[in-house]
Amino acid sequence: MMYGTKAIQLVKEIANGEKGQLTPFSSDVFSEVIAECSQHFADLRSLIRKMQEAGLDVETTKNEDHYGQLIHHLSLVRNKRCLMAYMYNRAEILRNLVWKVGSEIPEEIQEKLSHSEKEYFKKHSEALKSYMSRVVLELAVDMVPPKDPYIKVRVLDDMGEVELPSDNTANFARHSMHFLKRTDAEKYISLGKMEELTG
Amino acid sequence: MAGQSDPNVSIFSGEEVEFMAEDEMVEIVPNMRMEPLNMLCGDFGPFYPQMATQVPMWLAIALKKRGKCTIRPPEWMSVENLTQILEAERESQAAFQVLPFHYVEISSLLFDYASGDIPDLYMVRSLINDIRDARFLKVESSLESFEDARSSAVKVKNLSAMEVNVVRPFVGRALQAFYKHGSPDLVPNPEAMSARRPQATDNIQRRPLRRR
Amino acid sequence: MDPLLQETVLEKAGSIVRKVGSFLKMESYYDIDDILVEGQRVPVVFQQAVNGVDIDPSAETHCVEPGSKVELPYWLAHELHLRKVAKMKVPACFNQRTKLELGADGASVDLRSRCLYFYEFGCKIAPLVSDRDMGSFLLSAFRTRYQKILAKAHNAAFTAHSKLLSYLTKEETNLYEAAQSSMAAFKKWRIGGPRFERASVLGRKRKEAN
């Protein structure tokens, strides 16, 4: 199999997925690519050793072993780029999510994340929170330009007694309808626990 | 706030463009008495019954919703003026008539919140839709012109905010592609290119305007 | 200004420009499409012997002999090409037949099946292979096909199962979709309705259990 073929699988997973959607973290393929990297590294080292044993200058000699090293080096760099891009593009989706749902990872997302991604989500949301408290501004509200301060909503998931950001409490029983402060409702709508009613 | 609602769709959402349009001034006739409002964006009022006054669109709509005023549609929204504009739009293949930068959003806001205040509502609504469609066809045909050689730009005058916003994602990408493919590194000799062009140009001229 | 100082300043400016330049290039490091473009296969002929690798499927040892013909992904082929270890040849999707077809009726050629990344791949290949007019060929192909995409792009009545879409390369599809989604967003705005929605990353709405 041509070098770098496994790593392309990861990249294709992002490319073929629906834009902005997360697929479950491919930990198997991911660790296979890392193993491939280690193999390239080992091969590279043994080619260097071979040259050293023959008393050749590794820096300047351009023989078949040198070109072998070059190919293993390039394959390593290529695999690394694929791994990085996989992580980077998933992290971007997570960063966007933090703005929409706050500090708790929704269940549907939780099961798709690797351990380090969960950690990343948590830290990113903490950083955002501490920044917002420093500038004393709730930056994550009004992601859609505001109209009325109050909107009508219907509860889709039973949530019971809930304390709202505006310090009020409300009883969100399933299918109940409420007239809420827009800023209180926004997060629940993003999470799919409520829907906005119009008209 | 650009692109916050959905980074993948376009640079601004329709809601965001509308938000910007809500800063445009409009004349209202209050039916109540109220002290002046002193806000960061300016002072509005005082308000007296039956005394027309200028306020931003968002304020006009807030008052209208609470039954505190009627809104006077802007002069350009008259049937007479819109009929004239529509004719002129259809007559000229290239030029766009001068309309307020936010005509799409302002008219849409007024239809939604103050339909009772617009004389000849149905006529006005259909005229504006026709104008919008006629203009959009022209936008599309003007975009054909930047297949012109190396001009990585296209000049279209008098487009409105919403019209620009709708074509922005397409135009941005297309320009980028033309820029990339026309880069001197790849196409070292533009004259050699122009020798092939006549055939392509002919095609464009013969192509009739599409109907949607 | 002291000429020596001036020189230092110019040198500094030059290095800043280079840094910015390489930063801009970095932008595409994580770019999924760019990675896939560089994964496209290119035929090469080896000029040097290489030891300790498994890239020649016809070889029985872990070696590549000079003169061996192999198809390598672009990311590997172009580095070897630059170091004169192997020589790149024009990939099949840019062959004479494709050129003739594109020249005759560019808009109806199925480029997607030839190479999903036809233009981007072509742009990378063009400066490396000895085909002088490949760049202008790409430009004129894109220009002709652009017209056809423009004609359909903002038209909502034109649906996704059309034949045209199955012919388009990735970049052309992106162009088409950019227009479609912005038109759809405009229509949605015009119709109105709820302004707040469930975050799209959470997927489609779960079916209500009753």
TrEMBL record, chain A:
Residue ranges the record marks as coiled coil: none
GO cellular component entries: GINS complex
Keyword annotations of the record: DNA replication, Nucleus
Subcellular location: Nucleus
A biological process term (GO) from this entry: DNA strand elongation involved in mitotic DNA replication
GINS subunit domain mapped to chain residues: 51-135
Domain annotation DNA replication complex GINS protein PSF1 C-terminal: ranges: 147-198
Any Pfam family hit: Sld5
Superkingdom as given in the UniProt entry: Eukaryota
Gene3D superfamilies: 1.20.58.1030
InterPro entries (alphabetical): GINS_A (IPR021151), GINS_bundle-like_dom_sf (IPR036224), GINS_Psf1 (IPR005339), PSF1_C (IPR056783)
PANTHER family: DNA REPLICATION COMPLEX GINS PROTEIN PSF1, PARTNER OF SLD5
Family of this protein: Belongs to the GINS1/PSF1 family.
Protein name: Putative DNA replication complex GINS protein PSF1
Species in which this protein is naturally found: Prunus yedoensis var. nudiflora
UniProtKB/TrEMBL annotation, chain B:
Domain DNA replication complex GINS protein PSF2 N-terminal: from-to ranges: 15-71
CC annotations in GO: GINS complex
Record's keyword terms, sorted: DNA replication, Nucleus
Domain GINS subunit intervals: 76-171
UniProt-annotated stretches for the region Disordered: 188-212
Gene3D superfamilies for this protein: 1.20.58.1020, 3.40.5.50
Main location: nucleus
Entry keyword annotation includes Magnesium: no
Subcellular location: Nucleus
Keyword Nucleus: yes
Pfam families linked to this entry: PSF2_N, Sld5
Top-level taxon of the source organism: Eukaryota
A biological process term (GO) from this entry: double-strand break repair via break-induced replication
Subunit and partners: Component of the GINS complex.
Protein family per UniProt: Belongs to the GINS2/PSF2 family.
Protein's recorded name: DNA replication complex GINS protein PSF2
Lineage, uppermost ranks: Eukaryota, Viridiplantae, Streptophyta, Embryophyta, Tracheophyta
